[in-house]
Design a protein that fits this description.
By secondary structure, the protein is of the alpha/beta class. Helices cover 38% and strands 14% of the residues.
Length: 253
């Protein structure tokens, strides 16, 4: 696999199910290092690397969600076509939940099998006519939101040199969220597992349950103690939930 879009943080691809992970706004593929290393060794865990960060820093980040989804789906389709029989799932946190969801919708229109399950974390489902975020276009507003949600090394945000490197991706991602509009279509047929922190300031447990309306398949809700980045403190439990969901889907296929 020579794609610039995916990273592996384990020693091999494994022969088990594949999990494709989508980072949060401003995040990079390394957000999933610990999860990748906690999941069973035979899983093939791929983390998406959006343009504009880390080793893709010199590439312009996407400022619109639709072309980002199209680019990811195209790259992922090539990976899936190489091993058409391997079951796979998508995991997305925060902005990544939207990107994973829209990627699954786009893949469903193609010839390749869709994901067996989506793991959607730290975000409520999109609503008709509503944007993906509350219109955070200004840098000060974006940084205030990042501080409110936590999860990022706060000292990093106070370092002008580091901030200069991460701000373009943050600005682009929040701009893409602010202009995102959900388009009505057929619900997914894949199973959906929603994960959320019980003290998340961005999405309540009740709001997380709204994803139920976006699938005709099995739906499960997993609530963890903590805020928006609850998964940092519950990697083992999140890995167990992912393993259970992925293996259940594989067994039934």
């Amino acid at each position: 696999m020579n794609s610039t879009w995916f990273r592996r943080f384990t020693t091999g691809a494994g022969n088990g199910p594949r999990l494709v992970c989508f980072p949060h706004a401003g995040g990079s593929a390394t957000a999933y290092v610990q999860l990748a290393r906690t999941l069973p060794a035979d899983f093939d865990v791929l983390s998406v690397q959006y343009p504009g960060r880390q080793d893709r820093y010199r590439e312009a980040p996407f400022t619109d969600l639709a072309p980002l989804v199209e680019a990811v789906a195209e790259e992922l389709a090539d990976v899936l076509a190489a091993e058409p029989g391997r079951p796979y799932a998508l995991f997305g946190h925060s902005m990544g939940a939207l990107v994973a969801y829209e990627t699954a919708r786009l893949l469903a229109r193609g010839e390749l099998p869709g994901p067996q399950r989506l793991f959607l974390s730290g975000r409520g489902a999109p609503l008709p006519g509503a944007g993906g975020h509350d219109g955070l276009y200004e840098d000060d507003d974006v940084l205030a939101e990042v501080r409110r949600l936590g999860g990022t090394d706060q000292a990093m945000l106070d370092n002008p040199e580091v901030l200069e490197m991460v701000l373009p991706a943050l600005r682009a991602d929040y701009g893409a969220l602010a202009t995102y509009r959900w388009r009505e279509g057929e619900p997914l047929t894949a199973a959906v597992t929603v994960l959320v922190g019980d003290c998340d300031p961005m999405v309540s447990v009740q709001e997380a349950q709204t994803w139920r309306e976006h699938t005709s398949g099995e739906f499960a809700l997993k609530v963890f103690s903590g805020g928006h980045f609850y998964l940092v403190d519950h990697v083992g439990q999140v890995a167990a939930a992912v393993t259970e969901g992925l293996l259940a889907g594989s067994a039934s296929s």
